[in-house]
Amino acid sequence: MTSSHETLHFTRTIGAPLDRVWEAYVDIDARSRWSVPAGEHIVYDSADFTSGGADTFRCGPPGHLDNAGTCLYHLVEPRRRFLYTDTVYRDGELMAVALLSWGLEAIGESTRVTVVDQVTSLVGPGMIEGHRNGYNKTLDQLATYLITQRPQSSTSVDRRIRSAHQDT
Asked: Is 102:46 a contact under the CB 8 Å cutoff?
């Protein structure tokens, strides 16, 4: 099969301070909760979120974690940005390689999150769509996770959810 590739751009303004957004990524238990779509599961076998570090993981439907991957962090600048490559395999076959950059910018009490995903799929265009849909859901789930992790009025929650979707 021929390879497919695309550069995808995602931006969200999340109704949480930059420190909270950063910690939600750094904390592997938190990331495990917000970074996978509903009905999916991820297990990190190792995690080293530092420049030169790597995460290894397995993901898929509960009980069928057939996808294995590695995120190699090339640059981690705390509370500012990080850059990594992400490789995904299924049954020993390389499915995709991506170069991703995440940028974080404080905007008052909120944080602008920008993700650029340069993905190459070796299994067809479905993997590209998977990245597109996956990162849109991931950023929405990150916003929801941060909103629901602290007590607040329902008006505040509604405003923060609208804010998280304004850049879609």
From this structure: no
Predicted confidence (pLDDT) per residue in 144-160, tens digit: 999 998 634 434 434 44
- Contact status, residue 12 vs residue 112, Cβ threshold 8 Å: yes
Domain range enclosing 52: 4-165
Total-model pTM: 0.86
pLDDT at position 1 is 63
Give me the number of domains the chain comprises.
1
CB burial of residue 117 (10 Å; 0-12, 13-18, 19+) = buried
Residues 6+ positions from 101 with CB-CB distance below 8 Å: 81, 82, 83, 115, 116
Neighbours of 86 (CB within 10 A): 18
CATH number at residue 134: 3.30.530.20
